[in-house]
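Friendly challenge for the regulars: who can give me the structure tokens for this chain first? No prize, just bragging rights.
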Amino acid sequence: MKKKLLRTSIVLGIFTGIGISFLILNFYATLHRSILIDHLPKIKSSDSLPHSSDYRYPWIIKKGDSLARVVQQLHIAGIISNPDYLILYARLSDKQVVQAGEYWLQRDDNSISILKKFNDGIVIVRRLTFIEGWNFSQMRNYLHSFPQFSQDESLSDSEILAASKISVAHPEGWFFPDTYRFSGADETVDILSRAHHKMLTQLDELWPLRASGLPYDEPYEALIMASIVEKETGIAAERARIAGVFVRRLQKKMRLETDPTVIYGLGARFDGDIRRSHLREKNAYNTYKIKGLPPTPISMPGRASIEAALNPLAGKSLYFVAKGDGSHVFSNTYKEHTKAVREFQLN
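First reply, four minutes later:
Bragging rights claimed.
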């Protein structure tokens, strides 16, 4: 009797072992099975480049999404067959954290490989570039041209600043022109926050390095000057020299009389030509009429223009006129300037 019971126990043990082995094999076989994306519709990824659904498919994990939510969405989309297996595997291997962003799901991926992408944050990285000299309106138009950032286009400037938690009275000049990387999880406010933080960093770094005797009481005034220098400069080598002219004019209580501020003040009314009536118009940005700096920057200045505003080239020139090739003629006296104007502007 004891021998019979022993044989029965052995047989049951064997079958139990076989059953467990089968379950384990099925578990891992399912996890290693290729994901299914062929049935998914052809779409465009957020960079507006078409992709082929028989090769890869863009998948976005939103900020705050849990592993369970992501896995369930993959299952509903028909990409993976057994969500419970993937969740169990993630728990057993301590890989339950997923990172927000846009990912490529490829035909040769399986449940384990896409989980690794989500764990490691191997997101699709794209880039956008804000150009030196753009104003805030141009910057927003460019940013909203990306489908990913278009949903905030209807917001006013004050609303977009509030949403970005940026505490400035006026947005102009407060965003650093540079190339920024972003993923599918980023929003408009994320890009603006990065650009604003970078501009603050530039000012914090460069303000203590300024020359002595400058006519600025605070970094914001230097930012305003830098924005004007940015718009006036056609050749990089002239930045500090142009800044020197403006600084000396401020020190001598002379009006800046710079066209880019007039153009900025005209806004949408500017059609490409500055008229005499524009120069006579009274507004806060017409530096032919006001004394000192305009109330805000007129563009996004780059680092070189900020450096020039804080370390202008010494000299005696108080005037400059464009030669038509990007460079300028600098003059010490109004008489010399008038002669240069006749030579390069009127003839």
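The two ends are 122 Å apart (CA to CA). Residues 126-204 form one domain. Your move, everyone else.
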